[in-house]
């Protein structure tokens, strides 16, 4: 199942994959990335509810941005290699 999702989300993964393992990788980095991604997805839903009450089309911009950031964080945290997780946190 993980292989199928890796093929589906390959356009996102290839930007962050380095091909080598990072020395500074910690398991807590992956956990924190998944939590931050889930919080951004939750924030996009809250922003969507607020945008629905306002009714303006420009209020969907934060929804789209928060959702994209959240999806990227969760995909890298779930499917990415140790090097990809280190790259997203900026550790080398």
Structure report:
It is a single chain. The model has no long low-confidence stretch (mean pLDDT 88). α3 (27-54) packs antiparallel against α4. By secondary structure, this protein is mainly α. It has five helices and no strands. It has one domain.
Residues in helix, % = over 70%
* Helix vs. strand class: mainly alpha
Number of helices: 5
- Major sheet, described briefly? none
- Silhouette: elongated
Average pLDDT: 88
SSE order: HHHHH
Strand percentage, roughly?
Answer: under 5%
Q: How many beta-strand segments? A: 0
- The number of domains is 1
CA radius of gyration is 15 Å
- Terminal residue distance: 30 Å
What would you say about this model in short?
The chain is mostly helical and 92 residues long. The chain is built from 5 helices and no strands.
Question: What are its keywords?
Answer:
single chain; 92 residues; mainly alpha; 5 helices
What's the SSE blueprint?
Elements: H1 2-8, H2 10-16, H3 27-54, H4 60-79, H5 82-89
Helix pairs in contact: 3-4
């Amino acid at each position: 199942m993980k292989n199928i999702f890796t093929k589906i989300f390959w356009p996102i993964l290839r930007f962050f994959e380095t091909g080598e393992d990072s020395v500074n990788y910690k398991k807590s980095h992956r956990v924190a990335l998944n939590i931050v991604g889930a919080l951004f997805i939750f924030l996009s839903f809250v922003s969507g509810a607020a945008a629905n009450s306002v009714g303006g089309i420009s209020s969907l911009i934060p929804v789209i941005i928060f959702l994209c950031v959240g999806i990227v964080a969760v995909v890298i945290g779930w499917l990415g290699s140790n090097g990809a997780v280190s790259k997203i946190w900026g550790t080398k």
